[in-house]
Fold this protein.
Amino acid sequence: MRMYDIIASKRDGNVLSDEEIAFAVNGYVAGTIPDYQMSALLMAIYLKGMTDAETAILTEVMAHSGDMVDLSPIPGIKVDKHSTGGVGDKTTLVVAPIVAACGVPVAKMSGRGLGHTGGTIDKMEAVPGTRTSLTQEEFFAQVRRIGLSVIGQSGEIAVADKKLYALRDVTATVGCIPLIASSIMSKKLAAGSDAILLDVTMGTGAFMQNLDDAIELARLMVSIGTAHGRKMAALITDMDRPLGHNIGNALEVQESMAVLQGKGPADLTEVCLQLATNMLLLAGKGDFKTCRALAESVLNNGTAFAKCCQMFEAQGGDTSVLKDPSRFPKARYSYDISARADGYITAHNVEDIGVASVLLGAGRQTKEDTIDFAAGIVLHKKLGDAVHSGQAIATLYADDPALFRGAEATFCRSLTIGAQKPAEPPLIYARVTPQGVERF
Ligand code: URA
C-alpha cells in the first residue's frame, strides 16, 4: 500500500477502505508517513468529505492509537460531557459537580484552551495549588471516594489526534465535520465513560456556524458513540453570545462558583441545568422532570457547590478562593470600554471577544505562552441589552496596560450597536439522540 495512492483516491472523491485509513493514521503516528503527505490527505478529506462509515473507522483507529482507559473498576454508570468549544464556556465546572452531587460518578478528562476558546484545565489551574495531572491510581481513587475528578488528558490518550490536530491547526483543515467528529469521539471513546453528553456549540464563537452543520456534527458523533456501545446525546447550544459575563480563567471560575451558589447569571445557570439534566438522563436517574428536579435540588441546597470544593481540595486547590472570590489573585490593571452610541447590542462576533481576551493574556498565542490567570473581560452588556453612549459595556483586566489598546480594538470590532432591540436567540436549539433530532 502507498500513501500516494490513498491521497490520490481521496482527491478523486473515492471512499477509502478500512485498511487504507488504518495505514495512513498508524503510519503517521509511527513517523513513516511525513507531515506533507498527511497534510495532503487531510486537505483531500476536507474538500471531498468522508462517508459515515469512513469517519467511524477513522475514529476507531485514532482511539486505539493510544491508551484505552478502562473505568470499569469504578462502580456505577460513568458519565462524560464534551463541549466543541466556546467563549465564556465554563459549564464543566458547574455541571460535573451537579451530576456528581446527584450520585453519578464523573471521571473526566478535559483540555486546555484552543485558539480563541477557553479550556477547563486552564481554568482549574487558576485556583492556586490545583493539580490537574494525577496518576491513574489517584484519579480512580478520588472518583471512588468522592465521585468526581477532572484532570488533563494524558499524552497517551488518542495519540493520533494529538499529532493530527496540531497538523490541522496549521493547514486550514480544522473546520471539517468528519475530522472534528473523529477527533472528539476518538478521545471520548478512549477516556472510557459509559455515557457521553456532547455540547455542540453553534454561532460566531463556534466551529459550527449554522444549525444544519451543528446537527450533522452531533448526529455523526452520536452515531459513532452508539455504535461503540456508549449511551449518547447531544445538545446544540448557542454561541452567538458568550456564556455568562466573565471571560478569562480566574474570572470564569468565580462566575461558575456563583452559579453553584445560586447567584450566577440566568443564561449560564439554565444551560448548566440543561446539560446536567441530560447527563442524569443518560445515567438512568429517571425521566426528564425527575432529572431536572434532582439537578435543581443539589444546586439550591448547596451540595453541588460542596462537591466542587471537595474536588478542588482533593486535587490540592486552595478552596478559600472558591468560597470568597475576593481572595483570587487580581490583575494589576483594569480598563473600561464605553459604548460609542445609544441603542441596543444587535450582534456580537464571539470569536473576536475570545481573541480580545487572548490578547490580554487569558489564552495562548503560541503553544509556549504562559497564561495570566487573572486576565480577561467582564461584560456588563450583552446581545439585546440597551446601551447609552459613554456607558461602560465591558471591563478589561491585564497585568500590562499596553495590552488594552489591541484588545479594545478587537472587542469593539466584535460589537454592532443598532436602533432596534434584536430577537433573543434560544440558549438551546436542538437535542440529538440515536432516536432522532428534537428542535426547540
Ligand atoms: N475539538 C476537538 O477536540 N477536535 C476538533 O477537531 C475540534 C474541536
The first helix runs from residue 3 to 11. The domain at 79-323+428-439 is CATH 3.40.1030.10 (Pyrimidine Nucleoside Phosphorylase; Chain A, domain 2). Residues 84-85, 165, 174, 179-180, 183-184, 207 surround uracil (CB under 6 Å). The chain has a mean pLDDT of 94.
